[in-house]
Design brief:
295 residues, alpha/beta, five-stranded mixed β-sheet, 7 helices, 5 strands, 12% strand
Length: 295
Amino acid sequence: MASVQDIKRRVRSVQNTRKITRAMELVAAAKLRRAQTRIEAMRPYAERMQELMVGVARASSSVRGLPLLQRRDVRTTAILPLTGDRGLAGAFNAQILREAFGQERRLRDEGVKARWLVSGKKGVSTLRFRRYEVAQAWTGFSDSPQYADAQAIAHRISELYSEQEVDRVVVIYNQFESALTQRVVAQEVLPIPESLLEGDEEERSQALLGDFIYEPEPEQILERLLPVYVETELYRALLESAASEQGARMTAMRNASKNAGDLIENLTLQMNRARQAEITQEILEVVAGADALIC
């Protein structure tokens, strides 16, 4: 049985750990609130972007010649998991990578080659540990992504698709639903589906309101809008991933603090039992000594 001093040292160690996990929980909660605010601020922009694309597409005589809309036989698919730069976030990184490896296995069974691009240090380290070839990686912004980060990723994947180095691009990320729930999403961002440009009935009616004169031609405007749409989708995915990471970290640290509290209670109980055993032993020794003197 461990001594009282050993148990006291363990209790102090767990108490210090609980202080750290509690602080990390509070920091994650504050970052989560900011991430949610950024997502809510970005949604109207994304909706307006789609309405604009619908209006311009309907005014265009043909959109089939645009590189980002062209569909071809899929021989190579780019897989882009959006992971975090840090751990201690529960299953946040693991479930993204699990889905990414599942996608890679399904592509291999279909005879399609997978090309890896990755965002986040955790994804980079895991892929390199498994000896996957990483075409390009982006790190250092998973906590607070900026639009410029989405632009850099969007420019690269658009370049790979336009130069026919890849025939499809799939982004895998955690979609934020609540601090307790993050849902893994595998979204095909390229090629951009032509059905997206058709819009629903409400968007079509709004797009047809008014008599517009386009300068330059609608096809040229749409050609410039499509890369911006890809940037917007990636920025939204990065914000969703950032909020999911903070939510997962907050939940994980809360559970860790709770487990530390339970462990402290158990160790305190053990310490009290050990102290009582020591006291009982000392009493027995005193009684035995007194009996020896009497005899």
